[in-house]
Amino acid sequence: MALLYGLITALAFGAGDYIAGQVTKRVPTLLVVLYAQAFGAVVMLPAALVSGHSLSVSAVIWGLLGGLSLGLGFLLYFHALSLGKMGVVSSIAGILSAVIPVAAGLLIGERPGTAALAAIAMIVLSIFLISKKDANGKTGGTTVKVLLQSAAAGVLLGGFFIFLHIPASGESMWTVFFTMSGSFLGVAVLLIVRRADIRVKKQAWPFILGNGFLQTFGAVTYVAGVNIGLMSIVALAGALSPLFTVIFARLLIQEYLNKFQISGILVALSGIALLVVTT
After folding, report:
1. What is the pTM of this model?
2. In whole angstroms, how far apart are CA 113 and each of 20, 80, 96, 201?
3. Which terminus of the chain has a lower count of CB atoms within 10 Å, N or C?
4. In sequence order, which residues have a C-beta less than 8 Å from that of residue 10 and are 6 or more positions away?
5. Domain boundaries, the chain
């Protein structure tokens, strides 16, 4: 069941990333992140109030840290994508966002088992393959600065999974509320410093709100998963969001899938199947 929650998280994040990719063609990324996270916080407040979960210092601190990690991670990731080769950037960020929570889980004593570790390796490989672009992809140069931004984005997105795992299960809904709030506040401060125009055309709102709902829903299913299972497995499954992003792009806008991405999808499905029969 924990693995299923992780896969639902990946599905929600992957769909959200697809929507964000479409709307950021017309709206600045900062504004998409700002309003999506604000909507997520609005959605989570009544949910947290009626959940019966405890509003604790732990939920506030780790939720805010998770939100800042998520918001800053997205901003660095999108900025790196705009500057470097998309395949390189997405591979580095995707792999680190998967490996870091797995490593953290192993460090705190989680032992997934030999077969599960083999599945973990397969899924990490699949993320690399799914993120890889061929000659039809972006051809811009990838500098050391872009590589560092990609790595930092992956570390921060991996940290998001770790921070949400720390509070007790009876604090989960408040943790997600403060995660969305922390992400919103971090981006809001950046926009205030830049004195940016925060107006958005009405045509973009359904996409922005849809992205915010999906990210929030994914965070909820993630904490539900880690409350009953291993973080090293649930977070790894949650990091499979690129799998669902490319599937949505293929189904909805007939985006071309290269041989690497097709291979990555097959490897991911194999790794998931192995996890299903071993966990």
Report:
1. 0.83
2. 36, 35, 21, 51
3. N
4. 218, 237, 238, 239, 240, 241, 243, 244
5. 2-278
